[in-house]
Amino acid sequence: MQSLNDVLLETEDKMSKSVDFLKQQFSGLRTGKASVSLVDRISVSYYGSPVPLREIAGISTPETRLIVINAYDPTALPAIEKAITAADLGITPINDGHVIRIPIPDLSEERRKELVKVAKQMTEKGRVAVRSIRHEANEEIKRHQKQGIITEDEQNQALKDVQKYTDEFIEKMNQLLNAKENEMITL
């Protein structure tokens, strides 16, 4: 049986990881600005094995609307180009035999609105995850009180703490969403 402090620490940690996961998901949303995170998780078939792009190539953004991929092994360029095309990101790689350049086109107004909807859906899933974590923590705290491990006052304070964490992490998610929306709309 966990101590009350352990329950609270674990709850805060899980909620924090939910926010981090949302940040990670947002980094993969295309905004019209070049971003390494747009392509770094793409898996490339390299000598018959799937390998993350970032392990076989240097990825940089020398300009705001350009991603440059410099393969450590130039023979991997065709496989990298194929993987980027297959990822269906709405971008077209240009292979000049030395590096792959990916110009990032402007997003249409319609596409921006679609991306905002996707960001809102991701955020709502994050909020649901945080609420689920809150529910689990509350159940654990109530179990502690029923078993006489903690007093009713300690239970009430712990439930308030869990709610405070919930509000805090949902607010962080809302702030991330607002920032991402502004980034997508003001390009």
What do you see in this structure?
This protein has 187 residues and is α+β, with helices and mostly antiparallel strands. The protein folds into 2 domains: 103 residues, Orthogonal Bundle (Topoisomerase I, Chain A, domain 4), CATH 1.10.132.20; 68 residues, 2-Layer Sandwich (Gyrase A, domain 2), CATH 3.30.1360.40. Helices cover 59% and strands 14% of the residues. The chain is built from 5 helices and 6 strands, in the order αββαββαββαα. It has a 4-stranded antiparallel β-sheet. It has a two-stranded antiparallel sheet with strand order 1-2. A hairpin with a 2-residue loop joins strand 3 and strand 4. Helix 1 packs antiparallel against helix 4 and helix 1 packs parallel to helix 5. It is elongated. It starts with a helix and ends with a helix. The model has no long low-confidence stretch (mean pLDDT 88).
CATH superfamily of the largest domain: Ribosome-recycling factor
Question: How many alpha or pi helices?
Answer: 5
**Helical content class:** 55-70%
Structural class of the helices, strands and pairings? Answer: alpha+beta
Tell me the CATH topology of the largest domain.
Answer: Topoisomerase I, Chain A, domain 4
* Portion in strands: 5-15%
Overall number of domains: 2
Strand order of the largest sheet: 3-4-6-5
- Which CATH class of the largest domain applies here? Mainly Alpha
Q: From the alpha carbons, calculate the radius of gyration and give it in angstroms.
A: 22 Å
Going by CATH, the architecture of the largest domain would be Orthogonal Bundle
Provide the succession of SSEs. HEEHEEHEEHH
Ranges where pLDDT stays below 50 over 5 or more residues in a row are: none
The total strand number stands at 6
Mean pLDDT: 88
- Biggest sheet features: 4 strands, antiparallel
The end-to-end distance, rounded to whole angstroms, is 52 Å
Shape: elongated
